[in-house]
Design goal:
about 100 residues
């Protein structure tokens, strides 16, 4: 009988991943620190300490100019765009192969 391996993820890493999921879909207006704290169920101090640190070290989040709102940063979105582009290319290749096999003998 096969057993599934369970992994324990460190809490700071899990919270950071939750942050990225929370910010997804808010690219234009972003989210205010209070909204982020509530959405992640963390203290506002977590937001005020960690978002600037993540922005400065990775660029994966950014503060929207002239506001105190945050969104996913350009490097993070570029990763998503690269994945999407590669999947689209693979889909085109599979469609081409499928079309060749679809021709009856």
């Amino acid at each position: 009988m096969a057993t599934e391996t369970t992994y324990k993820l460190a809490e700071p890493i899990r919270k950071t991943c939750d942050l990225f999921r929370l910010l997804a879909g808010h690219e234009v207006l972003g989210l205010a620190p209070a909204e982020i704290a509530k959405g992640l169920e963390v203290a506002p101090s977590w937001v005020s300490v960690n978002l600037p640190a993540i922005a400065a070290t990775t660029g994966f989040v950014e503060r929207i100019d002239g506001t105190n709102r945050w969104r996913l940063g350009v490097p993070f979105v570029r990763i998503a765009t690269t994945v999407s582009t590669n999947l689209s290319q693979a889909r085109r290749q599979l469609d081409e192969i499928s079309q060749r096999y679809a021709v009856p003998l």
